[in-house]
């Protein structure tokens, strides 16, 4: 397994990876509170981006409603915790299959008739919106007035109940991101991964050589949805409050998608690089605007939009393919 | 794309002008429904009034979706900034109305022309290079544009709902027991006229035929010497002109906020898929169906849940007839 992970990596790439890992592990020692929250956000987007990338980057199915899986995971774990005191890790046993089921439902509707592409993408948005309005009216999760997790003054870290300091969430998300990276690398070099790539490149041809495209596309959706729901669980216990209007909002889905697209769709490091660039950009913009004393609501988003527009026009394949070439890491198979 | 409002039609608390107009029977089914719902006896003509209002509003929805359908059918690009472009046109109307007090229906032609120019420029300068790129790349491009539009509108016009006060806002026509609001009636008629004009253009002019040729066979169109990039830009312009006209008409019925854009984009998607992606009559039929569904759901259930019913219709259509009601084949 280790051999499969490192196969095709140049020594230079391995050294860089080790360096990055060490930096990420040591970061909380040097980073202040603010920087730590930014890093938490970065790894949150890196992880969810990696999960989204399985669907779009590997199997070629464009999902624009990943907030659905985040929201289902968050709501399932949080409401079980609030109502029955069930720990989030046990809640995950409910949350992940729930999200997978939702993904399977969307996949079944769309793939059954081979209505791919645009239909699938819009169906994902529509189901996410359906969930948003639905949770707005669901009394058990307190509807549109929001679900709040009990917060106590607590200085320790309780990993089992996910109650603790930002440092705990940082290491949790870092672990999740690394696990996702390793998992994706293993998936991509496995039989399933090759089937996915075949489907992404030419679905007709894939079917012609005997790949059960329906089954493998469903598998991609289900894995991606279950993975994303874990990010939702962390989201719920990190922020301690959930509003359908925020969690299922279409801009949450867009945020998840941005990092892998800017970083490079279908690459293993794209989501991570993209998350660093985008979150860094957003935070820099905020502090720059604050420094100048500009406080116009929406100004940040306009700059953000312009930057995004520039990236997508100048580097259509994303930043990572370009960056890896610059760093001399070409031929690493990612 | 911030602040998607669940009930995009109803801003009773935010707007002080024209509140009375919204309290007439059937003027806004959503705002009134809780009271109607509590009545033990609901006369049949209330249903009929709400249904007619829903159909007339749905025609305007259909016109909005028609723009999306035309763009997708020819350029094969999904305009994820569609609703945002509509709010742009709506704010243009509000600005001109505030300065000159011209009726929105008079402004329909100039606003549609301005939106045509805008759409032509956007396609010619930004989107044309993206035509051969993958879908997610186009998606990101248009989402970036949508973000910019929403937030520029927010900076310029502020977050509050704005509307247009016309002299006939309180008028209505009564036929027997049925009461139809003048604004909704004019809106429905205007939507039909604009849509009819577009149908005629595609069917009977040589330019329209050329555009249809591009849609049917890209390579063939290139071979016979059509300037495809120019025709694509024209088509995108027509699509934005359509949505500009729809926005102008819709101002007769609804208020506008900068954050309403994404909700309208989604509504247009739902309508177009329900009716059949790429089918022009399908967009109108889908619009009427969704308008009617939302109005009836607002009356029978809670208004804030009415968009759930349009999504349910979408799922039903995809289950039973995936190519859409009027669609010929799955894309």
Structure description:
- The complex is a heterodimer of chains A (334) and B (331).
- By secondary structure, chain A is mainly α.
- Chain A contains 15 helices and 2 strands.
- In chain A, strands 1-2 form a two-stranded antiparallel sheet.
- With 331 residues, chain B is mostly helical.
- Chain B has one domain (22-36, 43-320): Orthogonal Bundle (ABC transporter involved in vitamin B12 uptake, BtuC), CATH 1.10.3470.
- In chain B, 67% of the residues lie in helices and 2% in strands.
- Chain B has helices spanning 29-38, 44-75, 82-100, 104-127, 135-157, 182-204, 206-216, 218-223, 228-250, 261-275, 280-300, 306-320; strands at residues 172-175, 178-181.
- A two-stranded antiparallel sheet of chain B has the order 1-2.
- In chain B, a hairpin with a 2-residue loop joins strand 1 and strand 2 (178-181).
- In chain B, helix 3 packs across helix 10.
- Chain B is globular.
- The two termini of chain B are 27 Å apart.
- The model of chain B is unreliable at 1-39 (pLDDT under 50).
- At the A-B interface, helix 6, helix 12 and helix 14 of A face helix 5, helix 10 and helix 12 of B.
Shape call of chain B: globular
Distance between the termini of chain A: 17 Å
Oligomer description? heterodimer
| Alpha plus pi helix count of chain B | 12
Top CATH class of chain B: Mainly Alpha
Given helix and strand content, the structural type of chain B is: mainly alpha
Give the rounded overall mean pLDDT of chain A. 86
Taking Cα atoms only, what radius of gyration of chain B do you get, to the nearest Å?
19 Å
**CATH topology category name of chain B:** ABC transporter involved in vitamin B12 uptake, BtuC
Query: How many strands appear in the DSSP assignment of chain A?
Result: 2
List low-pLDDT spans of chain B. 1-39
* Count of separate structural domains of chain A: 1
Order of helices and strands of chain B: HHHHHEEHHHHHHH
Sheet of most strands of chain B? 2 strands, antiparallel
Helix share of residues of chain A? over 70%
- Span between termini of chain B: 27 Å
Q: Could you report the average pLDDT of chain B, rounded to the nearest whole number?
A: 83
